[in-house]
């Protein structure tokens, strides 16, 4: 078959190069300009051919046996998913991919703590791709977004505590809840009560509140959430408690000051 006909075939379907015995350089270059992934079918490509393939489609990096660092950087700059095609990437290349998307961590074998942290800081849910996230990584992810907890197979208690403090709904992602855990969660976020009202007694709740309200460094949000929590109310709540009286009797100066301010705001 004449070269001109073969060239027309390649122009119409670049993958036709795979079925042409001993294609010449012109044919190879044409195929690569049309579709960079046809590099797969070209034996012993020149550097020019490799670069042409990458310019057309960065995924062609997978068909380059010994790519230069410049080639690998070009491929990752074109898209973080191209990290999957690079064997034994350096930390520099991994960080370049992670700067685009934390999800690139899925293509890293046994990532270091530093790389895991970079991943979750970019996308908190990238923790789902980390088999055994470091405790610091778990804590970082749930601090950014409590929903990260759902992706951690065996979270540390500190990660659970931080997630619950961030948002009371995090308790729905926690398995093996026991009374001790529930009480600890209530100490950092009183709104957890909405999910565990049937799991504890009035006395349990009072004990938690006495401990938290007495602290001089009690968080303002905790006091305001407590005062506005409809689950706890001396008249209509599922757990009847006189909240103002409890703060008056056991609260620190800070707790009392916040309570007065909150009540004045409502009046």
What does this structure look like?
There is one protein chain. With 267 residues, this protein is mainly alpha-helical. It has a domain at 199-267. Helices cover 51% and strands 0% of the residues. The chain is built from 14 helices and no strands. It has helices at residues 3-12, 25-34, 47-56, 69-78, 91-98, 113-122, 135-144, 157-166, 179-188, 193-196, 202-213, 220-228, 243-250, 253-266. The longest helix is centred in the C-terminal third of the chain and has 14 residues, at 253-266. It is rod-shaped and about 100 Å long. The N and C termini lie far apart (93 Å).
Number of strands: 0
Radius of gyration using CA atoms only: 30 Å
Main beta sheet? none
SSE class: mainly alpha
Order of helices and strands: HHHHHHHHHHHHHH
| Average of the residue pLDDT scores | 94
Strand content: under 5%
User: In angstroms, what separates the terminal alpha carbons?
Assistant: 93 Å
Low-pLDDT sequence parts: none
Shape verdict: rod-shaped
Q: What is the number of helical segments per DSSP (H or I, 4+ residues)?
A: 14
Helix content: 40-55%
Pick out its properties.
267 residues, mainly alpha, 51% helix
Task: Give the arrangement of secondary structure elements.
Blueprint: H1 3-12, H2 25-34, H3 47-56, H4 69-78, H5 91-98, H6 113-122, H7 135-144, H8 157-166, H9 179-188, H10 193-196, H11 202-213, H12 220-228, H13 243-250, H14 253-266
